[in-house]
Design goal:
The complex is a heterodimer of chains A (142) and B (129). Chain A has six helices and no strands. With 142 residues, chain A is mainly α. In chain A, helix 1 crosses helix 4 and helix 4 runs antiparallel to helix 5. The longest helix of chain A is centred in the first third of the chain and has 28 residues. With 129 residues, chain B is an all-alpha fold. In chain B, 87% of the residues lie in helices and 0% in strands. The longest helix of chain B is centred in the N-terminal third of the chain and has 31 residues. Chain B starts with a helix and ends with a helix. The chains are: A mainly alpha (142), B mainly alpha (129). At the A-B interface, helix 1, helix 2, helix 3, helix 4 and helix 5 of A face helix 1, helix 2, helix 3, helix 4 and helix 5 of B.
Chain lengths: 142, 129
């Protein structure tokens, strides 16, 4: 059995790519505004929760977590991982074609490597079959 | 000799990566135990699916690891440059996940998946340069 994906499952993988990268960017922007947190000022982490960029980042990362969890229910961890990495490519391409930023040669190389990685994994089965383990798991889950 | 600051930075990066690997592997193990969420939702409805996920022990412990990972990540980002911490954590996590998935989840990590893991780890590092 090859476990080919349904269109709705591809949509979940695309959502993983977009929500993780944009969520991380928003968190980073928010933490720049909050300032440096060290062991003597851990209270700043609480303050961070009231920053709108941090809040928006948290909402998107909750969405990411829901999609990621759903994906792991029908695909292997090593199958889903490259989808999360593709988010970095999305951010870099947005910067290049929307914000007209210059991408260095090393960044183009990074994009090419991640695209290849997604291609390698997407061509294979989504899930490893473990009939005996799945039966034990089903028993344990009851 | 490593400076104290460098040691702090790399310790926090390693700690955040290890937490991420533990969390992701536990969540993956929990979700594999439950089976396809679409089937559960079709059978028990959306709330039934949510309840099934939230009452799975492996998922809950994994989610706790990810919650600690979230705050540890904020801490790491505050003492390390984003351009170093983000790709380093991501690369370590991808490689750690591949090993952990093979050992603990018994996933069939064939040469394509190893290659993909390596490409992703190097690709993420190159993107951040």
């Amino acid at each position: 059995m090859t476990h080919r994906l349904k269109p709705s499952q591809y949509a979940v993988l695309v959502a993983i790519m977009l929500t993780a990268s944009v969520g991380d960017s928003l968190l980073s922007r928010g933490m720049e505004q909050v300032g440096q947190v060290d062991l003597h000022h851990l209270g700043l982490l609480w303050h961070a929760l009231f920053n709108p960029f941090v809040d928006a980042g948290i909402v998107l990362l909750i969405g990411f977590f829901a999609c990621y969890t759903a994906a792991l229910s029908w695909a292997d961890l090593t199958f889903v991982m490259p989808a999360t990495a593709f988010g970095y490519v999305v951010i870099a391409l947005l910067g290049r074609f929307w914000l007209h930023e210059q991408l260095s040669l090393s960044r183009w190389a990074g994009i090419a490597l991640i695209v290849c990685a997604v291609g390698f994994v997407a061509g294979g089965p989504a899930r490893t079959e473990h009939p005996e383990l799945d039966q034990m798991d089903a028993g344990a889950a009851r | 000799m490593l400076s104290t600051q460098t040691l702090h930075v790399w310790s926090s990066i390693t700690f955040v990566s290890a937490l991420a690997v533990a969390g992701e592997v536990l969540i993956a193990a929990g979700m594999r135990q439950l089976g396809d969420l679409d089937d559960i939702r079709a059978h028990s409805g959306l709330f039934g699916a949510i309840r099934a996920v939230l009452t799975n022990g492996k998922f809950v412990i994994g989610a706790l690891c990810m919650a600690v990972n979230f705050f540890a990540m904020l801490f790491a980002l505050s003492i390390a440059d984003l351009s170093l911490a983000a790709p380093a954590i991501a690369s370590f996590t991808y490689i750690g996940n591949a090993f952990a998935a093979k050992i603990f989840l018994r996933e069939k990590v064939d040469h394509r998946r190893w290659l993909a893991t390596g490409f992703v780890a190097v690709g993420v590092a190159l993107l951040a340069r």
